[in-house]
Amino acid sequence: MAKHDPALSQLFHALSDPTRRAILTRLAEGPARVTELSEPTGLRLPTVMRHLSVLEEVGLIATAKDGRVRTCAIVPEALAPARTWLDEQRSLWEARLGRLEAMAMKAMKERDR
C-alpha cells in the first residue's frame, strides 16, 4: 500500500469543498475581510468561519485581526505538497501509458507480419 501522508490528506480534504475553493479563488486576487468572503456564499458567518478554520489549519490561508475586523490572505506555497504529489502521479501514469503504447505498437507490428 502507498505511503499515507496525513498532512496531504488534510490538504486535499480542505480543497475538496467548493465553498473553500471559491474562497481561495477570491483570496488569489488579494486579502479580504471575512465579511467580504461570506457575502457571495450565501452562508451564515459561523459557517464561513468553520470553512476558514479548515483552510487555516492546513496553512492555505493566514488570518489577522485588527480590532473587530479579521482579514484573510492566501498562502500559495501551502499548495506545494499537493502539486508535488500530482506531479509524481502524472509522471507515473505517463510512464505507464508510454509502456502501454509501446506494447500496443509492438503487437500491431507483429500482427501485420
From TrEMBL:
Residue stretches making up the HTH arsR-type domain: 1-94
A Pfam family hit: HTH_20
Signal sequence, renumbered to the chain: none
PANTHER family with a match to the protein in the record: SLL0088 PROTEIN (PTHR38600:SF2), TRANSCRIPTIONAL REGULATORY PROTEIN (PTHR38600)
UniProt protein name: Metalloregulator ArsR/SmtB family transcription factor
Organism: Ancylobacter koreensis
